[in-house]
Design brief:
The complex is a heterodimer of chains A (about 280) and B (about 450). By secondary structure, chain A is mostly helical. Chain A has 13 helices and no strands. Chain A has two domains: about 45 residues; about 210 residues, MetI-like fold (Orthogonal Bundle). By secondary structure, chain B is an alpha+beta fold. In chain B, the strands form six sheets. In chain B, strands 6-7-8-3-9-10 form a six-stranded mixed β-sheet, sandwiched between helices. In chain B, strands 13-12-11-14-20 form a five-stranded antiparallel β-sheet. Chain B has a five-stranded antiparallel β-sheet with strand order 15-19-16-17-18, with no helix packed on it. In chain B, a hairpin with a 2-residue loop joins strand 27 and strand 28. The chains are: A mainly alpha (about 280), B alpha+beta (about 450). Chains A and B meet through helix 8 and helix 9 of A and strand 6 and helix 2 of B.
Chain lengths: ~280, ~450
């Protein structure tokens, strides 16, 4: 009896070993491509000519650089607001349609995402150059960002709206709310988790974007991503580039903390509410 | 309650994509009454409630409230509030804000809202729960919040869609009493949807029994229990013995070969009828001084009484009694005259459109040929009406039959079962000796001399 038990235990622990083995490739990947580059960046950001120094960080916080950061944040905010203003109604309409129609229409938003975004941005460059005079302006950069990030706003909002129980809408109508009030007091608050994750998925990538501004802004609109790119590639100054990256990283972490907090207060499990 | 008709449904029909949910409904609801829509699932009771609430519009007919047609008035303009089946309480609001929702929309001032909401929470025994969120409440508490949220708007009519369905038995019983008390205290008209006949009998002033989108009977609980209009109502409301009989003359009915005295009249002489006898109305007496006796085939203790099946040769009576009898014992049964309720026989015939082929001695039904006598006088390809009595439809294994379908319903009628078989678009009615599972595949066959063909007058 005892022996067979022991055998069983050995078998179980053997199984557990085997399962954790599946995580190894990921751990190797993380170490090679996430942790080590991070450590390298931290190392370069805090070292200078042969020793530890805060000189790099101090330089990175210089007004010229901070202004680029603020510019990037401003553009990212514009992009997010545009995506939200345009994406919410689209998601709402899609959610009210017949499932088959909505599936067909959402293909139009999803299929372009299967193409590399650089390709799409090049296409915009050609189109804007041929048919408008806004190429190489901030407007063109904004348009490119809006276009590239829109699906990331629509999809999470659409997902929350489609899961919204119709009986809430009926209940609001039953209690005297007309369709507009029902939307404001019931549909919108209940779709906030989708809105928050949409904002996260648009705002954070927008602040770090760089290729779009290079292609459509023609170097006139300098974003923080471009600045880092320039330091690393053009000036070959790894210390300065790393210091800028650390600043951006801190900013992204701060924004994500805010988003997580917003997500918690809007999700029903936590019993939070918007008003 | 007064006699004023608060809501009136006039010839209302509703279909969902070809499926009839309600068919030509006429019904009035009196001001201040507790009316229950009762029926099995799919009978149209919830559709009727949603029509009154305004969530759906009727295809045909009028819905009047206070004499005004409201069929196309959106829900938010109706003085009607609903307690939803799964409550539909807003998860992003706390209990207070849920209850205050309707008042805020009407633009009531803060003090009034506070006063009314607190009073309503007290009424439903949830004082001090205002700050809680919905998911922190038990099912029974959520249910009471849903009632408070609807009642605080002082509606003329409160609609309740199986509101106790999610609660356990004990809580359900308590809530039944509470709801009834609340309705009497407030004097608001309640329209209550349920499939639970006991719930309907306990709470209602009026019960509307429905089946397949058609009202079967409207009456007080005593009426529908004691005087069911047809076998379906008798079978659905409580347990009963339903058996065919012959009304020999006024006050005399023959059931299962025995003549009984009864209290019904006006059916004519020797009329075929259906008789209902409630199990608790039959007395078990010593066999030697009884006119009818039989053998006890089963005894089941039900808590307050025993349920006894007595086989009297040809019919097995279900009897509820507090006296214990032994299985296998021979007992006499006695049925007092006022325990027998006589119903007009619901004579059902299968009527189908068909095409005549007199040369082949056949008709075409649903694209299949059936041998058929009596086609003299019809031309080839004439449109005819074929009538087949349910008793003439033979149920056979599907592989042996021209036509087959799935069993849609099976109801015991005392001596036999009435089986509804869905064959494509049409339903066939047939009789069977044994119970058939719903959904079972069964073949239908009809002898050639049993199809009665007549000219199709609809042409």
């Amino acid at each position: 009896m005892k022996r067979s038990n022991a055998g069983k235990n050995r078998g179980l622990s053997g199984l557990r070993m085997k399962r954790s083995v599946f995580a190894y490739p990921y751990i190797v990947w993380m170490t090679a491509f996430i942790f080590s580059p991070m450590l390298l960046i931290l190392y370069y950001a805090f070292t200078g000519d042969g020793g530890f120094t805060l000189e790099g960080i101090r330089a990175a916080l210089g007004w010229d650089n901070v202004r680029v950061l603020l510019d990037s944040i401003r553009l990212a905010l514009y992009t997010t607001v545009l995506c939200l203003l345009f994406g919410y109604p689209v998601a709402y309409l899609l959610s009210r349609m017949k499932k088959s129609t909505a599936a067909l229409l959402s293909v139009f938003f999803v299929v372009p995402m299967w193409m590399n975004f650089l390709l799409r941005t090049y296409a915009w460059k050609v189109l804007l150059g041929a048919f408008t005079n806004i190429l190489y302006t901030e407007g063109a950069v904004l348009l490119g960002m809006f276009y590239n990030f829109l699906p990331f706003m629509i999809l999470p909002i659409y997902t929350t709206l489609i899961k919204l129980d119709r009986s809430y809408i009926e209940a609001a109508g039953d209690l005297g709310a007309n369709p507009a009030t029902t939307f404001l007091k019931v549909v919108l608050p209940l779709s906030m988790p989708g809105v928050v994750s949409g904002i996260t998925m648009v705002f954070i990538p927008s602040t770090t974007t760089f290729a779009i501004s290079q292609l459509l802004g023609g170097g006139k609109t300098m974003l923080y991503g471009d600045l880092i790119y320039m330091k690393f590639i053009t000036e070959q100054s790894w210390n300065a580039g790393s210091a800028l990256s650390v600043i951006l990283l801190v900013f992204v972490l701060i924004s994500m903390t805010f988003m997580k907090k917003a997500e918690r207060t809007t999700s029903e499990e936590e019993g939070g509410r918007l008003w | 309650m007064n006699d004023r008709h608060l809501i009136e449904l006039i010839d209302v029909s509703k279909a969902y994509g070809g499926d009839v949910a309600l068919s030509h409904i006429d019904l009035y609801i009196k001001d201040g009454e507790f009316l229950t829509l009762l029926g099995p699932s799919g009978c149209g009771k919830t559709t009727m409630l949603r029509l009154i609430a305004g969530f759906i519009m009727p295809d045909e007919g009028r819905i009047e409230m206070d004499g005004r047609d409201i069929a196309n008035v959106p829900p938010y303009k109706r003085r009607v509030n609903t307690v939803f089946q799964k409550y539909a309480l807003f998860p992003h609001l706390n209990v207070f804000d849920n209850v205050a929702f309707g008042l805020r929309i009407k633009g009531a001032d803060k003090r009034t809202i506070g006063r009314k909401v607190e009073a309503m929470l007290e009424l439903v025994n949830l004082k001090g729960y205002g700050g809680r969120y919905v998911e922190q409440l038990s099912g029974g508490q959520q249910q009471r919040v849903a009632i408070a949220r609807a009642l605080v708007n002082e509606p003329q009519v409160l609609l309740l869609d199986e509101p106790l369905g999610a609660l356990d038995l004990k809580l359900r019983k308590e809530m039944q009493v509470e709801l009834k008390n609340m309705q009497q205290r407030l004097g608001i008209t309640f329209i209550y949807v349920t499939h639970d006949q006991e719930e309907a009998l306990t709470m209602s002033d009026t019960i509307v029994v429905m089946k397949d989108g058609v009202i079967q009977q409207v009456g007080t609980p005593t009426d529908v229990y004691n005087e069911p209009k047809n076998p379906f109502v008798a079978d659905f409301i409580g347990e009963s013995n339903i058996l065919p009989g012959i009304m020999l003359q006024d006050y005399r009915v023959r059931m299962n070969g025995v003549v009984y005295e009864c209290v019904d009249k006006g059916f004519g002489r020797n009329a075929e009828v259906d008789a209902v006898v409630r199990p608790e109305d039959i007395d078990i007496v010593p066999a030697e001084n009884a006119r009818v006796s039989g053998k006890v085939v089963s005894v089941v203790f039900m808590g307050v009484h025993y349920e006894v099946d007595v086989d009297c040769g040809g019919y097995e009576w279900v009897i509820q009694t507090t006296d214990y009898v032994e299985k296998g014992e021979t007992v006499g049964i006695s049925i007092p005259p006022d325990a027998i309720h006589i119903m007009q026989k619901t004579r059902q015939t299968n009527l189908f459109d068909a095409v005549a082929y007199p040369d082949d001695g056949e008709i075409e039904l649903f694209g299949r040929r059936f041998a058929c006598d009596g086609l003299d006088g019809f031309e080839t390809r004439d449109d005819v009406l074929a009538a087949i009595a349910p008793a003439d439809v033979a149920l056979v294994p599907p592989q042996d039959a021209e036509l087959s379908g799935a069993v849609k319903a099976c109801m015991f009628l005392g001596t036999h079962y009435e089986v509804t078989v869905a064959c494509g678009e049409e339903d066939w009615i047939a009789y069977a000796d044994d119970y058939m599972e719903e959904g079972e595949e069964i073949g239908l066959s009809v002898p050639a001399d049993r199809i009665v063909v007549s000219g199709n007058e609809a042409e």
